[in-house]
Amino acid sequence: MTWLEEVQWNNEGLVPAIASDATTGQVLMLAWMNRDALAVTVAERRAVYWSRSRGRLWRKGEESGHHQEVLEIRLDCDNDAIQLKVRQAGGIACHTGRHSCFYRRLEGEVWQTIEPVLKSPTEIYRSEN
Amino acid sequence: MTWLEEVQWNNEGLVPAIASDATTGQVLMLAWMNRDALAVTVAERRAVYWSRSRGRLWRKGEESGHHQEVLEIRLDCDNDAIQLKVRQAGGIACHTGRHSCFYRRLEGEVWQTIEPVLKSPTEIYRSEN
Questions:
Q1: For residue B110, what are the domain limits?
Q2: Cβ(B100)–Cβ(B29) under 8 Å?
Q3: Complex-level ipTM
Q4: What is the CATH number of the domain that holds B44?
């Protein structure tokens, strides 16, 4: 499929993917995609990333329930970065229970946390047993 | 400086940096920073990236005039991605003369250009001789 071949995958076969809120435009997170992740994302209209730590496809929300419905997919001018415009389930993109993963701001020489936890991680990831 | 050491630079000493419009939230571009680029960005309050193609620091706007005043710097939950909230000079972040570098949207199996050229690249990069 040509549209997949147009993407300039890096030497690990990945590109960075920015998820932003389709309504507010706010940046929610940055993750990585390989060719399969992008193809599945398009097919399912749900964000699927490549988890570098787990070495497998990661269906965003598979544990937390905080999946992302994908309304638009954009490619940048160099073909090496993707933007997803998403509807974020629960309004929580971050595994810390915050709206955005970018919740720390540089203030002087300190990365200061400035966004609230909306739901505690223990509640998000509690065992269903 | 501890705040620089908290950043998880990759094995090339880089992190991806998302520039977004401080007013609208819109994603403008994704570029890369090394330690020096981030330090200089903080010192100058202007976006300075690491140009992987040129192998040197790249003061955004040094040729085009389309520099970025940095109003906020954010770090993500994994310490391996940066967000800059910027005021974009000329309203043009992309070297193609568009507002955002993410100007193509996947429509069916085609990356369709959906944002207008605000200023032609030949005009932006014309020789001053």
A1: 2-124
A2: yes
A3: 0.95
A4: 3.10.20.810
8 Å CB contact of A77 and B103: yes
Number of domains in chain A: 1
> Given the DSSP bridges, would you call strands A82-88 and B48-51 parallel, antiparallel or unpaired?
unpaired
Digit-by-digit pLDDT tens for chain A (129 residues) are 699 999 999 999 999 999 999 999 999 999 999 999 999 999 999 999 999 999 999 999 999 999 999 999 999 999 999 999 999 999 999 999 999 999 999 999 999 999 999 999 999 997 554
| Residue A105 lies inside a defined structural domain of this protein | yes
- A95/B81 touch (CB, cutoff 8 Å), yes or no: no
Residue A129 lies in a domain: no
Q: Is residue B129 part of a domain?
A: no
Kindly list the residues from chain A whose CB atom is less than 8 angstroms away from the CB atom of residue B105.
Answer: 72-74
